[in-house]
Amino acid sequence: MTGSRAAARPAGPGPHPGGTARDAPEDVLGRLGGSWTWMLGSALATLVPGILLLVWPDATLHVVAVLFGLYLLVTGAFRFVAVFGQERGDRLPGLLIAVLYVLAGVLCLRNPLQTIAALSVIVGVVWLVSGLLTAYAGLAAKDLPHRGVVLGAALLGIVAGIVVLALPSESAVALTRLLGLWLVLLGVMELAVAFAWRAALRRITH
């Protein structure tokens, strides 16, 4: 799931109100996390594993767990940096999402030979909780551009989590197809959020 931004701000170097250069680590992360290209990278990190799972449905459970663990870790890193692109008061939901993704990724990679049910629970909980947190952030953030797109992505994540938890797969092939399908859908939605964010930044810049 994609995190929300409090308001569209043009990315790029600039002075602080006090006149000092914006070269602090937090400012660097803020410019990076607030850029639409960073959001695009996050969307691709979701879309690519989904495509791999769909074109490789016969992958073993071990491969699926490792691939999904890597997806969760990479996405968690993207989410963590994206937190700094938000206003300070709006960072908590995004930070919780990042931590959730990283912890779930570690669980998948630490025991890749776990059962289908265990993997389904991990993935379902991650998508459900991150979707709820993204929806909360989207509703609470002030001056959020394209709020409908962000809330749509959050809703899709909630539905994906519920489906994975409510419909446990009986085989690795079924689980692979299910996870691949939802990853592709989530990735496409995150692409829409990224391009909507680019449009908002261009309007502010020009």
Molecular structure report:
This protein has 206 residues and is mainly alpha-helical. The chain has one domain (25-205). It is 73% helix and 0% strand. Helix 6 (147-166) runs antiparallel to helix 7. The protein is elongated, with a radius of gyration of 17 Å. It comes from Streptomyces cupreus. Residues 1-11 have a biased composition (Low complexity).
In short:
Keywords: Membrane, Transmembrane, Transmembrane helix. With 206 residues, this protein is mainly alpha-helical.
Secondary structure: elements and pairs:
Blueprint: H1 25-33, H2 36-55, H3 61-83, H4 91-110, H5 116-140, H6 147-166, H7 172-205
Are there runs of 5+ residues with pLDDT below 50, and where?
Answer: 4-22
Spatial shape: elongated
C-alpha-based Rg, rounded: 17 Å
Can you count the beta strands?
Answer: 0
Tell me the strand percentage band.
under 5%
Distance between the termini: 29 Å
Averaged pLDDT, please?
A: 77
The helix/strand series, from N terminus to C terminus, equals HHHHHHH
State the major sheet.
Answer: none
Instruction: Supply the number of structural domains.
Output: 1
Which structural class best describes the helix and strand composition? Answer: mainly alpha
| Helix fraction bin | over 70%
Total number of helices:
7
InterPro entries: Acid_resist_chaperone_HdeD, DUF308_memb
Keywords: Membrane, Transmembrane, Transmembrane helix
Biased composition (Low complexity): 1-11
Region (Disordered): 1-24
